[in-house]
Amino acid sequence: MADIPIIDVHGLLDGNGGDAEAVTAIGRACRQVGFFYVAGHGIPGATIEAVFRHAADFFAATPAVKQTVRYTGTSGNRGWVPLGGETLDPGTAPDLKECFNIGLELAEDDPELVAGRPFRHRNPWPALAGFRTAMLDYFDRAHRLGRELHQAFALDLGVDRSYFDDKLDRPMAVLRLLRYPGDVSPVAPDQMGAGEHTDYGNLTLLATDSVGGLAVRTRAGHWIEAPTVPGTLLCNIGDCLMRWTNDVYVSTPHRVVSPRGRDRYSVAFFLDPNPDSLVACLPGCVTQGSPKYAPVLAADYLRSRLEPTYEAGGLAEAGGAALQSRSWDAASRRKSGSGEPRSRQA
Predict the structure, then answer these.
(1) Each residue of 10-45: pLDDT tens digit?
(2) Which residue of 112, 137, 271, 340 has the smallest Cβ count within 10 Å?
């Protein structure tokens, strides 16, 4: 844990600003480790406990209940992913976990929902009392915290404090409930609860129970444990923000070793940008030469990362690439300022 700092962010929240020490500490962690514990985050313990309680209720539900909210496919990225439905480290055995994804809640007449835009989808809700209310409450609080952390990122990176505000107001965020069963044996020597991977979006806010298993790979290539620290959330930088900063911030590989004899539960909030946000190198993040990455629409980038993850489990929908291209073609031309969308760099 000594390699993952604990940073109190209370002074950054609710427009307090002015906490230069916290901004500096966050910037250092994002450059050197890619992970940090968030203390003073402002989300009540009772709210977090309620999410874990309802998550346990869902995963204990009958297969019939779960099948009614099965995964929507990558263009929606919502719903229940069964055990073995995801492979975070392609080419290895499927992950030993089941998940439930919740996205931004949209009104029935939302224009993007009505138009069938990718990553704009109805949340499939299980018929469990109190589940939807608890999840949306936590989603909103985590979303607010994530946006406030981005204001600290902006200050550290030398751009206007509000730089990310309009890029995260209708995000492709996902609140993910996870269960790693303790009574399932691996079918392959290298099979894990979650294979080695980096996260795809801007940041992740993770709440965990007391069961260990999360490991982080240091810059030196050593694996260290990332235990639960009471009263904190664990934040890590994702690939999209690393790309936005031209690798100034680092996205760190991590994995989950399957527990033995006891289920492990965690709650992850993945904050990806708005679908039509153009992810292009920030001013000041190029010291010499050209940026390492071509500009890309956030929706295109997320789709390119999700589809390989779900192909092995048969959950990546056919035709997703064509749908994505049609839906965001006009937005891409508008954002890039040219007649053709800017392509993703491989």
Answers:
(1) 999 866 556 899 999 999 999 999 999 999 999 999
(2) 340
All structural domains of the chain, each given as residue ranges with its CATH number in brackets, are 6-336 (2.60.120.330)
| pTM of the predicted protein model | 0.89
CA distances from 225 to 78, 89, 217, 260 (A): 29, 19, 9, 16
What is 218-276 written as a DSSP string?
A: -TTS-EEE----TT-EEEEE-HHHHHHTTTSS-PPPEEEPPPSSS-EEEEEEEE---TT
Residues 199, 32: contact at Cβ < 8 Å?
A: no
State the Cα–Cα distance between residues 325 and 340, nearest whole angstrom.
Answer: 11
Residue-by-residue DSSP string for 69-101 = TB---TTT--EEE-TT---SSTTSPPPS-EEEE
